[in-house]
Amino acid sequence: MKIYTKTGDKGQTSIIGGRVDKDDIRVEAYGTIDEVNSFVGQAAAELNADVFADVLADLEKIQHELFDCGGDLANVTAKRVPKLTEEAVQYLEQRIDVYTEEAPPLERFILPGGTKASAAIHIARTVARRAERLIVSLSKADSTTPSVCLQYVNRLSDYFFALARVINFRLGVKDVEYVRSAKVFRN
């Protein structure tokens, strides 16, 4: 099987139910979801399974859900049924709560970084925020965009923030507070 088709050589790509220009907001949105997924994979590759078995299970689940989200965004058929569900959003909320309890209390903004895995998760977080902005733009252009994708990606960036802190905490690396930050988090 050849992986190149040459059908995109003139700047268009296939989506589920049609073809669009490669710079279409829909392609930008699901392409950015793919970027998030790649950074999740990079972070997972940095984690020790003995210390992070729970996190690795979460990240694999999330990678599948990101594929679902991308597919949902790429689908323009009239009878589309989103693969991504509200349960995925609720699961992220549960995990955010668990990780927030595990990490030390936080009052100020922190600098992204620490360990390699935490830094990769912070990158995934910021790319998820970009994906969120693109999904908002897509939703304005196409009111049939599945709302669960926006909810999921919004929650996912929060999950990544909590996870990045837990990764550093478990590895004994302190988060570095932004020195000019006011107290923005309440315990």
From TrEMBL:
GO terms for molecular function: corrinoid adenosyltransferase activity. Pfam families: Cob_adeno_trans. It is an enzyme of class 2 (transferase). InterPro entries: CblAdoTrfase-like, CblAdoTrfase-like_sf, PduO-typ. Residues 3-166 form the Cobalamin adenosyltransferase-like domain. The keyword ATP-binding applies. It catalyses: 2 cob(II)alamin + reduced [electron-transfer flavoprotein] + 2 ATP = 2 adenosylcob(III)alamin + 2 triphosphate + oxidized [electron-transfer flavoprotein] + 3 H(+); 2 cob(II)yrinate a,c diamide + reduced [electron-transfer flavoprotein] + 2 ATP = 2 adenosylcob(III)yrinate a,c-diamide + 2 triphosphate + oxidized [electron-transfer flavoprotein] + 3 H(+). Its EC number is 2.5.1.17. Keywords: ATP-binding, Cobalamin biosynthesis, Nucleotide-binding, Transferase. Pathway: Cofactor biosynthesis; adenosylcobalamin biosynthesis; adenosylcobalamin from cob(II)yrinate a,c-diamide: step 2/7. NCBIfam families: PduO_Nterm. Belongs to the Cob(I)alamin adenosyltransferase family. PANTHER family: CORRINOID ADENOSYLTRANSFERASE, CORRINOID ADENOSYLTRANSFERASE MMAB. This is Corrinoid adenosyltransferase. It comes from Robertmurraya beringensis. The lineage of its organism: Bacteria, Bacillati, Bacillota, Bacilli, Bacillales.
